[in-house]
Amino acid sequence: MNRVENGKDILVNVRKAKRTVLMGHETNAFLSSYDFPIARSEVASSPEEAAILARQIGFPVALKVLSPEIIHKTDARCVKLGLDHPKKVEEAYKEIIDNARIYNPGANIEGALVQEMNDGGVELIIGLASEQTFGKSIMFGLGGIWVEVLKDVSFRIVPLSLWDAKDMVEEIKGYPLLKGIRGEPPKDLDALYDLLVQVSTLGQTIEEIREMDLNPVFANEKGAVIADARIVIH
Amino acid sequence: MEKKALKDLDKLFYPDSVAVIGASNNPKKAGNVWLNNFIRYGFQGKLYPINPSEEEILGLKVYKSVMDVPDEIDQALFTVPAPVVVKAMEDCGRKGVKVGVVHSSGFTEAGEEGKLMQQRLAEIAKNNDMRIIGPNCVGILCPESRVAWARPCTFPEEAGGVAVVSQSGGGGGFFVNLAAEQGVTFSKVISIGNECDVSVLDFMEYFQEDPKTNILFIYLEGFRDGRRFLEIAKNFCLRKPVVVYKIGRTEVGGRAAASHTGSIAGSLDVYDGAFRQAGVFRAEDIEEAIDILVVFSNVWFKQGIPQGPRVGIISGPGGPGVATADSCIEAGLQVLNFSDETKQKLAEIIPSASRTNPTDVDLGVKTREHFATRVEIIENDENVDMLAIVGPGESNPKGSMEEILKIQEMCKKPFIVIWPSAGKDVEECKEVLSQKRVPLFLTPKRGGQALGALMQYKKALDRLKEEMGQ
Question: Fewer CB within a 10 Å sphere, N or C end of chain B?
Answer without folding.
Answer: C
